[in-house]
């Protein structure tokens, strides 16, 4: 047995109603074949972050490796060096990875690596949309965090002097940032082209991951309210501002990633001395 994260998939949407399928349990071993049973897909002991893209699941490790599991099989894409992969972003052709060594792009077919940005300062997250690659770093001092958009060789600072930056997401029009700003803790958004931020949620202390879909924003992490609390995932009622936030699931474990697609929620947790596996339900 090997301690490390378990990436699990549970039902998120059933007939338009948010729900957890099969009780939403995370299993450390594959269950017998049955409707809504867990399926063990990949075994790995060092997941640090992951993303989903259609049928593909992509992950980074604490030792700097980037890999993908797709219908054709599981394979390594490459490495960013001997440093933890902090965050991934994907588009149709490329997987982007960031760590203390910089921001890198991997061709999804050939695996060839290109350096996007060699100088980073305590990276937090990256995210990708048609407008470019967005990068959030916390910086090496108080109020030193900044958000930038990278288009080719051009780097545009969208916001700086951010306090407590901890998570990032994008959709076609907005960039979402988790921050401990003037209010206790804030999820804010600003236009992809830059501009003044607006508040989305102000009870997000400890959120390490933001995910957005066409309608909703989701916040996940294992440090909510800065206490030793379980991992929690919350769906906000609207990306424009909270409306009846709903807790999707709660589990005890060290958080390593969260994602959604139209039917499922995915979570990576370290649950102690259990088999580390990529599991879907």
Could you please describe the fold and organization of this structure?
The protein is mostly beta strands. 0% of the residues lie in helices and 54% in strands. The chain has no helices and 27 strands. The strands form eight sheets. The chain has a four-stranded antiparallel β-sheet, with no helix packed on it. A four-stranded antiparallel β-sheet has the order 9-10-11-12, with no helix packed on it. The protein is globular and about 45 Å long.
Short description:
With 281 residues, the protein is mostly beta strands.
Give the amount of beta strand, in percent: over 45%
The pLDDT mean sits at 75
**Spatial arrangement of strands, main beta sheet:** 5-6-7-8
Low-pLDDT stretches: 10-38, 272-281
Say how many strands there are: 27
Report the C-alpha radius of gyration, rounded: 18 Å
Q: Which sheet architecture does the biggest sheet show?
A: 4 strands, antiparallel
Separation, N- and C-terminal Cα atoms: 22 Å
What characteristic shape results from the CA principal axes?
globular
Contiguous helical run count: 0
Succession of helices and strands: EEEEEEEEEEEEEEEEEEEEEEEEEEE
| Structural class by secondary-structure content | mainly beta
- Percent of residues in helices comes to under 10%
């Amino acid at each position: 047995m090997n301690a490390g994260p378990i990436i699990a998939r549970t039902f998120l949407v059933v007939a338009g109603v948010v729900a957890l399928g099969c009780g939403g349990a995370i299993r450390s071993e594959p269950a017998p074949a049955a409707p809504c049973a867990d399926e063990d897909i990949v075994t790995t002991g060092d997941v640090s972050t992951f993303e989903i893209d259609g049928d593909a699941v992509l992950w980074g490790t604490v030792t700097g490796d980037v890999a993908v599991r797709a219908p054709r099989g599981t394979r390594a894409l490459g490495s960013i060096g001997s440093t933890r992969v902090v965050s991934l972003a994907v588009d149709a052709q490329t997987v982007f990875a960031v760590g203390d060594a910089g921001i890198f792009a991997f061709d999804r077919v050939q695996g060839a690596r290109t350096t996007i940005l060699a100088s980073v300062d305590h990276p937090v997250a990256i995210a990708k949309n048609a407008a470019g690659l967005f990068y959030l770093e916390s910086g090496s001092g108080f109020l030193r965090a900044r958000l930038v958009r990278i288009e080719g060789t051009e780097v545009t600072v969208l916001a700086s002097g951010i306090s407590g930056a901890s998570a990032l997401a994008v959709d076609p029009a907005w960039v979402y940032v988790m921050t401990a700003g003037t209010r206790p803790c804030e999820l804010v958004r600003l236009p992809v082209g830059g501009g003044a931020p607006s508040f989305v949620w102000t009870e997000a202390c400890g959120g390490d991951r933001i995910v957005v879909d066409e309608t909703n924003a989701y916040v996940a992490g294992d440090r909510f309210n800065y206490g030793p609390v379980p991992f929690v995932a919350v769906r906000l009622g609207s990306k424009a501002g909270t409306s009846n936030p709903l807790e999707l699931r709660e589990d005890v474990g060290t958080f390593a990633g969260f994602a959604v697609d139209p039917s499922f929620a995915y979570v990576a947790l370290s649950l102690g001395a259990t088999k580390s596996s990529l599991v879907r339900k």
